[in-house]
Design brief:
- It contains 12 helices and 17 strands.
- The longest helix is centred in the N-terminal third of the chain and has 37 residues.
- It is an alpha+beta fold.
- The N and C termini lie far apart (56 Å).
- 39% of the residues lie in helices and 20% in strands.
- It folds into 2 domains: 98 residues, Serine-tRNA synthetase, tRNA binding domain (Helix Hairpins, Orthogonal Bundle), CATH 1.10.287; 305 residues, Bira Bifunctional Protein, Domain 2 (BirA Bifunctional Protein, domain 2).
């Protein structure tokens, strides 16, 4: 959510910021509504002051035995006029809110301009794609050949974009999630958190998922939402809170199922596990002082990268261009892994600094250390990482010519010592 005061101060600058998102100027329309609203508030105050004065006059007149009928008529008329003004002011408040809540976050100045992901900029690499010495298979070919990945069974019971994992692959998925959550809590200082998988409208709105992304989420008959990511409940821990500055930053993590309708994804990644309605993910969320959020984004991305390094996966960090940056983010780093089966880099984590965009919607604030001021926190979120995509990356990068899959050493303790899935 945007601060109307900032738009009043620099409307041209706000329009320029929205233009980087490919949007037309909007400040004139917003400020016209705001100007009318502020004028009505002034008029309301004047009428209320007159009503207060009349009330005193009526009281004095009645105590003196005077006829106050005319004064009471004036007071009644003023009450009617004030109520009309209040209704119109509420309408304007709602109109301004509807405009502002539909506008994306302002991008950081260093976000590269560009219409889509072709303008994303590679910032760093770790490892390089290597020649496996044979024609690599995609993960679903490997999994189905091993008899451990079953899309037909999942489709029979739930439809497309689901999978059944069996045996060692099911254990490998579980091992990946446990390894990640242990790494982030033991080494990176995140607090493991068990959160609801269903949230209400206020929570989904505060974390910028409503109204913009309502069609990408699943809802229940009692108007709750299945979480598309644990970012939603983890970030909402700060909703309506005033956090002492000394407690910042908050760093929390959760391993949860996530649910997405994948609206608009028809024809994209229809084979395999890359784009599912249900998947596991480890989420990282930080709530910080505004002065800390830039450094915190670097730290968060490094924490997610450590997962990929330990899994021995070729990876790279990219900063998203203006046209590819998500609605609530001011800047996003994507971490990508190389998938030999696809011969492509694919996103496995997005680490975003939302600055105070979500905090304003959630009313999430901090109290300054000197106790003299209250401000909005900054929120950040990132995948630490997507478990299903990590499973895909491990399968494809560690596949062998005989169709077996070597398990990265860091996962051996989670696999009961198993070092290979499939033929020895």
């Amino acid at each position: 959510m945007h601060d109307i005061r900032a738009i009043r101060t620099d409307p041209a600058g706000f329009d320029a910021a929205m233009a980087r998102r490919g949007l037309p100027p909007v400040s004139a329309d917003v400020l016209a509504l705001d100007t009318e609203r502020r004028a009505l508030l002034t008029t309301q105050q004047e009428k209320q002051a007159r009503r207060n004065a009349l009330a005193r006059e009526i009281g004095q007149g009645k105590r003196a035995g005077a006829d106050t009928t005319a004064l009471e008529t004036q007071a009644a008329a003023l009450r009617t006029e004030t109520e009309t003004l209040e209704r119109r002011t509420a309408e304007l408040d709602d109109a301004i809110k509807r405009v502002l809540e539909a506008l994306p976050n302002i991008l950081d100045a260093d976000v590269p301009d560009g219409a889509d992901d072709s303008a994303n900029v590679v910032l760093a690499r770790h490892g390089e794609p290597c020649d496996l010495g044979f024609a690599p298979k995609e993960h679903f070919e490997l999994g189905e050949a091993l008899g451990l990945m079953d899309f037909a069974a999942a489709a029979k019971m739930a439809g497309a974009r689901f999978v059944v994992l069996r045996g060692a692959l099911a254990r490998l998925e579980r091992a990946l999630g446990q390894f990640m959550i242990d790494l982030h809590t033991r080494e990176h200082g995140y607090t493991e958190t068990a959160v609801p998988l269903l949230v209400n409208d206020a929570t989904a709105y505060g974390t910028d998922k409503l109204p913009k992304f309502g069609d990408t989420m699943f809802s229940t008959t009692d108007r709750r939402w299945l979480i598309p990511t644990a970012e939603v409940p983890l970030s909402a821990l700060a909703m309506d809170e005033i956090i002492p500055e000394r407690e910042l930053p908050w760093r929390v993590t959760a391993l949860t199922p996530c649910f997405r309708s994948e609206a608009g994804a028809a024809g994209r990644d229809t084979r395999g596990m890359l784009r599912q309605h249900q998947f596991m993910k480890v989420e990282l969320v930080s709530v910080t002082h505004p002065d800390q959020s830039v450094a915190e984004q670097e730290r968060m991305a490094a924490c997610a990268e450590k997962v990929l390094h330990l899994l021995e996966l070729p990876s790279r960090r990219v900063v998203l261009a203006s046209g590819d940056t998500g609605f609530g983010a001011a800047r996003t780093f994507d971490l990508e892994v190389w998938l030999p089966g696809q011969q492509m880099w694919r996103e496995i984590s997005s680490c975003s600094n939302c600055r105070d965009f979500q905090a304003r919607r959630m009313n999430a604030r901090f109290r300054a250390a000197d106790g003299k001021g209250i401000g909005f926190v900054h929120t950040l979120n990132g995948s630490g990482v997507a478990v299903g995509r990590a499973l895909i990356a491990v399968m494809e990068n560690h596949q062998q010519a005989d169709g077996s899959i070597l398990i990265p050493r860091v996962l051996w303790p989670y696999m009961g010592g198993l070092e290979r899935i499939g033929t020895a």
